[in-house]
Amino acid sequence: MKKMEILNSGKAKTVYKTDDPDLLVMEFRNSLTAFDGAKKSSVPKKGYYNAIISKRIFGLLEENNIKTHYKYMFSDNEMVVDAIEIILVEVIVRNIAAGSIVKKYPFKQGQPLEPPVVVMDYKDDERHDPMLNEDIAAALGLATKEELAQIRKTALIINDILISFLEPRGLLIPDFKLEFGRRGNEIVLGDEISCDTCRFWDKQTKNSLDKDIFRFDKGDLASAYHEVARRIVPEVIK
Ligand code: TMP
Ligand code: ASP
Q: What radius of gyration, in Å, describes the C-alpha atoms of the chain?
């Protein structure tokens, strides 16, 4: 399989075409942004850590019968994925109140959310990812009500899998973001699941081990991402 020209370059990842029309190469870069691109930086090895964390989590989900776009690693920070038709919906699952939900609603930082809260946003930085409801999603032609119901159900199953996997590794997952796409007539998980797209807290100290370190200048991002990678993929960590 041969990597070809760039299909799309986002804030933290670049997607390349390949000589197989059904496959793409997704490169995890060291660049990162926050607040819809307003804050920018680059951290050595960030792309590598996010790639191996995503690979492990996609593998875990596949073992649990969740369909994902992941195929195999192409290099240390690149993975081969299925070419799926992206659904422009960011699905956020929250177990503990943190981040924007604390700003927007009268939740207290650290408050458990039981049952978990699922929010779907329209993926559009210029509009600051406005929240969707079923009618708006259908009217925009993003996804049908049936598809959204299936996505919500899958997101909650993924949440249970992640909580059980992370708990013995001393990690809490207050929230995370998923993106889905269409592959033929099925809906599969796309994008990444990494320290850029999840909140991870150390179970004991409740310290952030994720992109909040960059968003809120809370310390050394590379060592936090390394720590998550060490706990999730001890055997491959370089
Ligand atoms: P929030 O609290 O800022 O809304 O973020 C909720 C979760 O979604 C958090 O785990 C980080 C993740 N996230 C992304 O992956 N991409 C984004 O653009 C934003 C705003 C959040
Ligand atoms: N991914 C978004 C941005 O780049 C926001 C965030 O993760 O905080 O700007």
A: 17
238 has a pLDDT exceeding 80? no
Could you tell me the distance, in angstroms and rounded to a whole number, from the CA of residue 135 to the centre of ligand 1? 23
The pLDDT tens digits for 118-145 are 999 999 999 999 999 999 999 999 999 9
d(CA 140, CA 87): 11
The pLDDT assigned to 220 comes to 97
* Mutate which of 177, 208, 212 for ligand 1 pocket (most atoms within 8 A of beta carbon): 177
| Coil, helix or strand at residue 23 | strand
pLDDT in tens, 212-228: 999 999 999 999 999 99
> Cβ of 235: how many Cβ atoms within 10 Å?
5
At residue 179, φ and ψ (nearest 5 deg) are -130, 140
CA proximity to 50, closest of 78, 70, 92, 24: 78
* The two three-digit tokens of residue 131, written as one number: 């929240």
pLDDT band at 234 (very low <50, low <70, confident <90, very high): confident
Q: What would the two tokens of residue 18 be?
A: 């390949």
Q: Which two tokens stand for residue 48?
A: 């590598």
Q: In this structure, are strands 3-9 and 13-18 parallel, antiparallel, or unpaired? A: antiparallel
78, two tokens: 């690149």
